[in-house]
Amino acid sequence: MRSDKPGRVKQSRGSRVAMEPHAPRKEVEMVKFSRQIAKALDDALIRKAYDRLVLVAPPHFVGVLRTTLSERVERHIAATIEKDYLHLDPPEVRDRLERQLAAT
Predict the structure, then answer these.
(1) pLDDT value for 7
(2) Is 89 part of a structural domain of the chain?
């Protein structure tokens, strides 16, 4: 008992798929976390806690985060470094960031 298309639900504005696939839990949590970061960055900008912002995160998360940032925060992004530095100790992160920013 298979069909070519999933069932449809009629709505006031057209219709939609009745049984949409669930997003993986990891992705849901990533979006939730990115919204928290976006809010914190927006609040900090309102308080004038920074003038320029450098985003440093793994490539996929940078993409997710950028979808949640406000336009005013976006205007303050000076650079984006799409790298995963979570496994490094703070002095190594600092060194790599300094080299990355000097190259841009």
Answers:
(1) 57
(2) yes
Q: Does residue 31 lie within any of the structural domains?
A: yes
Instruction: Determine the Cα–Cα distance for residues 15 and 20; give it in Å rounded to an integer.
Output: 12
Q: Sign of dihedral through CA atoms 38, 82, 55, 66?
A: negative
Which residue is associated with the tokens 């450098």? 54
Six-digit token string for 37:
């970061």
Number of domains in the chain: 1
Q: How many CB atoms lie within 10 A of CB 65?
A: 21
- Residue 91 in domain: yes
H or E stretch covering 39 = helix 25-46
Query: Which backbone phi and psi does 41 adopt, to 5 degrees?
Result: -65, -40
The whole-model pTM stands at: 0.71
Tell whether 11 is covered by a domain: no
